[in-house]
Amino acid sequence: MLTVGMENGRVLCEYYWPTDISPVSSGEISIHLLAQNFADEWTTREFKLQHKGLNMERRLSHLHYTAWPNHGIPESTTSMIAFIELVRAHMQSVNECGPILVHGSAGVGRTGTFVALDRLLQQLKHEKLVDIFNTVYSLRMNRHCMIETLGQYIFLHSCILEKISEDPLIGLSEISHPVSLKSFVQHHAKNCSQSNAGFLKEYEQMLLEVAKEEINSAIPPSVNQQINLSSSKIPYDRSKVKFLPLDRDPFSDLAHVWFIPGCNSAKDYIAIEGPDKLALEEFWGLIWERGVHTIITLLPRQMNSPAPDKSCWPSEGEPVCTEMLTIQQGPEKIISGWPCVQLRLKYEKKAKERVLQQFRFPLGEGEELPDPEVLVGFLTVVRQLVPYRKRTSPLVLHCSSGGVGQMGILIALDTLLQQMKGEKNVDVYGVVLRLVRSCCLMTPSLDKYIYLYECIRDVITQKQV
């Protein structure tokens, strides 16, 4: 559903579902509301349908996008893409049994734009190309006025442009080495033989693949890259985060920020080196714009390492204020031994408010890696507390200068743990390759590459997942 019930005093759609535990009947069918979850730009509902005559019942998911004005376009391409990915995830969870019913008010403008965008994203994923003109032409041949305004037609292009610019996997050869959970321990032992010869072969192949892609891409360095050459901090253009500030000024960059792919999309993680007080506005604007639900702060253990800038974070009774946002610290809880702080963000201009959670994890000294059991336990706690309705939003990790490499290890291991649960196999090679494609500063050493294997081996043998 892509419309609200009433807009500007005009009824656009009747509410055809129950709003509380009392069922609604239509003929021989009764509709029961089982669950309802509200997000900022959509609401998800679960219904149970009962047919009295046939004595049958079914479950139905109702995904309701609430931020799309009639004859207009959504404010954010990011939220629309995330909503379509949510719809696709629901389809996969029920093995795509039956079609999707899509409706707005008249069923042409917003409906046509949604159907076209979903089709184009699938075409981009499977064919590595898009044909917007013929997609819209085909829809209009089947239903009058599908995509009814020029703005909606342009919006399709904007969404596809964002997906291409943010997805480091599009247009690149996909190489992966998935290993089933049943054979992983044996695969690990085989790679360990002859002084880790198997690991060395995989690792060198991964580095060679990255080198070939960088040579073939021939992307000229951006202004930021030229500035940072002296410090060897060269973020890849294709994964650098671009976001729209809250006051809708032109796009702006927050230095040393990268999208990192995970199991579900090419932007499951946002990795940040910083922030400092000079980047305060952009940092919190990014957190709001991307609908972030969880922040992981990586704390250095070395005495001479810079700690996170305290001026960027609220403390009890002392909020942090930007031009548009007020950030307040809520209560702190200890969950399975890990401190979790609640942060409350208020967007005064639109009278909106969100709550997110912040975890802290201590980094090892120098290149020292954390104990596998400790790190796996921490990531498990974080994932257990991610709200279900927010699982399409990115997880943010940030560190001080010098911690990007270890931050990459946390991201890679979290992705592998999600693979274990969802796919019943793990692909250490593929996950690390995508990580390095996105941020060259996260290129692990051979020892760190083997460490990821050892973490997964320990999880399997100890049955932690």
Automatic annotation (TrEMBL):
InterPro entries: Prot-tyrosine_phosphatase-like (IPR029021), PTP_cat (IPR000242), RTP_Phos/Ushers (IPR050713), Tyr_Pase_cat (IPR003595), Tyr_Pase_dom (IPR000387). Residues 81-154, 376-450 form the Tyrosine specific protein phosphatases domain. It comes from the Eukaryota. GO terms for molecular function: protein tyrosine phosphatase activity. It comes from Thamnophis sirtalis. The keyword Glycoprotein applies. This is Receptor-type tyrosine-protein phosphatase V-like. The keyword Glycoprotein applies. The lineage of its organism: Eukaryota, Metazoa, Chordata, Craniata, Vertebrata.
